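FAQ

Q: What does a record look like?
A: Structure on top, sequence underneath. For example:
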């Protein structure tokens, strides 16, 4: 029984779980920012190419 109590208290004191969650949240935020940037850049580029195409014709 004491081995179980030691294992549980060791698990509760360990910081591996919260650290992994923090990294997952940071990764999710980075992915969201990248997707927003790429979509904005894509729409701006599309508008630019349309303007150039209209100018040429």
């Amino acid at each position: 029984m004491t081995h179980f109590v030691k294992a549980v208290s060791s698990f509760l004191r360990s910081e591996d779980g919260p650290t992994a969650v923090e990294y997952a949240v940071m990764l999710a935020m980075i992915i969201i920012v990248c997707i927003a940037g790429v979509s904005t850049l894509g729409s701006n580029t599309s508008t630019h190419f349309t303007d150039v195409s209209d100018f040429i014709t």
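Q: Is there anything notable about this one?
A: The helical segments are 2-13, 16-56.
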